[in-house]
Write a structure and sequence with these properties.
- The chain is an alpha/beta fold.
- Helices cover 38% and strands 19% of the residues.
- The protein contains 7 helices and 8 strands, in the order αββαααβββαβββαα.
- The protein has helices at 20-29, 59-65, 71-75, 80-97, 139-152, 177-188, 190-200, and strands at residues 34-37, 53-56, 106-109, 115-122, 125-131, 156-160, 167-168, 172-175.
- It has a 6-stranded mixed beta sheet, sandwiched between helices. Strands 1-2 form a two-stranded antiparallel ribbon.
- A hairpin with a 5-residue loop joins strand 3 (106-109) and strand 4 (115-122).
- It starts with 19 loop residues before the first helix and ends with a helix.
Length: 201
């Protein structure tokens, strides 16, 4: 999901709406402010994006730099979708790394625009996570997620948006961010891992 409007960035590596030239001094002095998300290299018959995507890890700092000091200003900004995407990605990765789990995060994008915002390895499973700002995701959004997740062999497919009611289909879920965090923490727990091993046997 690229930023749009007056802040649209011609460099597609940037998931958040500040240009590379504007942020280079910040990266040089404080590289921990930026998340570098590498592309997944799948063995499929399609051309894939090879450059990493870069996200601001601190969305509050991003909003301050762009002058979005109120909720109304944030929601009306043309780049709010990109900011939401970066926020969800950072929360998902951090909830695992803080527990000593390396989820090997990537994104996936083909040259014709088929994309998954975040791919994580949790235990023995690959999770495909797509992020939408909407509060009413469509069946088409879920079908597109399924289609691309098939390309990368993802066992879990999760569409994260601002919905209130979760639609849990087991393998495919339409969820909000709190549900995603709870699911990741549960899946990464030692008790869950032991249960999965017994189930596989």
């Amino acid at each position: 999901m690229a930023s749009s409007g007056t802040h649209r960035n011609s460099d597609s590596r940037w998931g958040s709406p500040i240009t590379p030239s504007a942020v280079t001094p910040i990266i040089s002095s404080a590289p921990f402010l930026v998340r570098r998300l590498p592309p997944l290299h799948a063995n499929i018959n399609k051309r894939l994006t090879k450059s990493p995507k870069l996200y601001w890890r601190d969305s509050g700092l991003l909003h301050a730099l762009l002058g979005a000091t109120t909720t109304d200003a944030l929601l009306n900004a043309p780049w709010v979708g990109a900011s939401w995407e970066g926020f969800v990605i950072e929360q998902a990765i951090s909830c695992l790394t803080q527990r000593g789990v390396d989820p090997d995060p990537h994104f996936f994008r083909t040259s014709d625009g088929r994309e998954i915002d975040l791919i994580l390895t949790v235990g023995r499973e690959r999770w495909a996570i797509e992020v939408k700002l909407t509060s009413a995701p469509s069946e088409k959004d879920l079908a597109q997620l399924d289609s691309v997740a098939d390309l990368v062999g993802a066992e879990r497919r999760i569409l994260v948006s601002r919905i209130e009611r979760i639609a849990d289909g087991g393998r495919r879920v339409s969820a909000n961010l709190p549900w995603l965090i709870d699911a990741l923490v549960s899946a990464a727990s030692p008790q869950h891992a032991r249960h999965r091993r017994r189930t596989v046997r």
